[in-house]
């Protein structure tokens, strides 16, 4: 039996069916169960708190009450090779939603492949988890965490929240704005892929055309952030020429004048 909703679900378009919970171990775990049970896409699982939230690379996601923790069950009819670009599409939708939800101008930027930054610090993270069979994906769980009220103090990279910048909003407002934006971007991506959105994403990209250091597996690669391609891969101009990365993490930015 499903837990009763923690509060009334916001009014959204017919594509989305919202489950609103007081607390879950992980919104993505529950969305995965819905996928394994064969439910059609559009289930949106939201929790006021998570006891075992997670981000990329198995990292724990700090999940106190006051922030937004949301996962969506999707069944996109696109080639499996294109699924990586969906995280970039989600980033665009989330950036737009937060700008709509705030009366203030926000210094937001998209960090490849799945972070949203405010003032250079991490405000939100996106996680795509999928099961593939052959060249198709029977379902994807899209997880999203946004620091509205709280943010962790982490030694490895800076994080922030909207409240730390004097901006107050609530989960319902952000949820409605995000699902509206994502529905539009997702429909476009389903129809024609990431290519028409690529330049829009690059326009809001963090450190585009600047030198970066990327951790790819156990290898650290340094190069100038040149492009993202139609599959959402990062293109770096390195000493060995252009290199393409489907996965990795930007770990640092060389200081000016650093050799």
Describe the model:
This protein has 259 residues and is of the alpha+beta class. Helices cover 22% and strands 33% of the residues. A 7-stranded mixed sheet has the order 1-2-3-7-6-5-4, with helices on both faces. A 5-stranded antiparallel sheet has the order 11-10-9-8-12, with no helix packed on it. It has helices at residues 27-36, 84-101, 171-192, 198-203; strands spanning 17-24, 43-50, 68-74, 108-111, 115-118, 121-133, 136-146, 211-216, 219-228, 234-238, 241-245, 249-252. Helix 2 runs antiparallel to helix 3. The radius of gyration is 18 Å and the shape is globular. It contains 4 helices and 12 strands. The N and C termini lie far apart (60 Å).
List the helices and strands and how they pair.
Elements: E1 17-24, H1 27-36, E2 43-50, E3 68-74, H2 84-101, E4 108-111, E5 115-118, E6 121-133, E7 136-146, H3 171-192, H4 198-203, E8 211-216, E9 219-228, E10 234-238, E11 241-245, E12 249-252
Parallel strand pairs: 1-2
Antiparallel strand pairs: 2-3, 3-7, 4-5, 5-6, 6-7, 8-9, 8-12, 9-10, 10-11
Search tags:
single chain, 259 residues, alpha+beta, seven-stranded mixed beta sheet, 4 helices, 12 strands, 22% helix, 33% strand, globular, disordered N terminus
Oligomer: single chain
Helix content: 10-25%
Query: What is the number of strand segments?
Result: 12
Q: Separation of termini?
A: 60 Å
Find the structural class using helix and strand composition. Answer: alpha+beta
Give the C-alpha Rg.
18 Å
What profile does the largest beta sheet have?
A: 7 strands, mixed
User: If helices are DSSP runs of H or I spanning 4 or more residues, what is the number of helices?
Assistant: 4
Please write the string of helix (H) and strand (E) elements: EHEEHEEEEHHEEEEE
Neighbour order of strands in the largest sheet:
1-2-3-7-6-5-4
